[in-house]
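Table S2 (text version). Query chain:
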Amino acid sequence: MKLEHFGMAEPGDCRLVFTADAEELERAITAEQAVPDAPQAEEDLLTAAVNRTILEGFSALYEQIAAEYGVTPVTDPDFELLAVNRAEGFRAGAQFYALPPLTLGRYTGFVQAVEPHLIRQLTIEMEINRHHGDEERAADAAGGQTEKLCRPASDRGADARYRRVARQRAGAYP
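Corresponding C-alpha cell output:
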C-alpha cells in the first residue's frame, strides 16, 4: 500500500489518498476465494478483497502518516473507494480527524478571571438522592453515616429534611 497524497482541508481534518497495486489485490482475492462461503460474483469478490487489503495494510500506513506528519488521530478513518481494477489494483481515500496543529506565539499577559460558583449543601443532598439508590449508599465506605444523611426524602419526610437544612444554613445564600 502506498500513500499518494496527504493534506488537511481544515486544521485537524485529515484526508489522504492511497493505492494498492495489482499484486496486493490479487493476494487478497486469492485469500478471499480460499474462505468458505466466498463471494461468487466478481464485484462482491473485489469488494471483499479491497476490504481485506485495507484491513491488513492500512495500519502501517496510518502509523507512518502519524509519525511523518506529526498528527495525533482522534477518530478512526472513514474510507472511500475511488477506483478499482483487477489488472491495476485500487485507489482509495480516507478521512479522519486529528488534534489540530498548535504553534505557540509570544506571551501577551492575558489573564482570564475565574469566578467560582458556590454549591449549597441542599443542592448536594438533592443530587445524591436523585442519582444514587439505597444500595449504593449502603455500600458506601462511610457506611451508616452516609446512609443516615442521604436517605431519600420520602423516608424522613420532605418537610423535615428541608427545615433541617435551612436551619443549618441560616443566613445569606450565595
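Notes on Table S2: The mean pLDDT is 79. Strands lie at 2-10, 13-20, 78-85, 89-97.
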